[in-house]
Amino acid sequence: MAGLKLGRRPDKDGPFGPYRQSQRLDSYKRFAQQLIQAGRAYVDPYSSAQVEEFRAQAKNNKQPFLYRNHRPQSTPDWDGSQALRFKSEPKDYQWHDEVMGELSTGPEVIDDFIIIKSDGYPTYNFAHIVDDHLMQISHVIRSQEFLASIPNFLNLYEALGIERPLLATLPYVMSLTGQKKTVKT
Predict the structure, then answer these.
(1) Most buried in the list 25, 35, 99, 157, measured by CB within 10 Å?
(2) Model-level pTM?
(3) What would be the CATH architecture of the domain defined by 21-170?
(4) What is the per-residue pLDDT across 38-47, written as a single tens digit (0 to 9) for each?
């Protein structure tokens, strides 16, 4: 196919490299610091057991679990060895999806989420926003399984002052029988 440009290989140099997330940690930390300074990120002080207790409490009260309802009053300064959580601003969102058309959601789906793990590596929910911005990605195409996360992504784009790319949501990729989604093996 003449003229078709294939994606860059992560082991090759290019205009937006490096392409391995392990080599981009300084970029993620820089954007994380921007969020901290704006009051939009905080150290996650809770253990897994405490978070499970919060979940059980919400379930017993027949309410959805929202981490934002358990934000700590104060947290230590982030030194890079603790998990860092994005502080959401719940609100309504309307956006255009290039495939699905006009979509909207309410503030009930917006929640705080981990952006940097305690090992210093970013989560997907943070890394793809930073990477797409730095690599000047104009279109983001995902499967429907990410549709529920888009409002949180929109909240993060706004907090970082990043112009969001065009979004397109495709149907699930189905197995050859059409009976279930394909999975990585």
Answers:
(1) 35
(2) 0.84
(3) 3-Layer(aba) Sandwich (3.40)
(4) 999 999 999 9
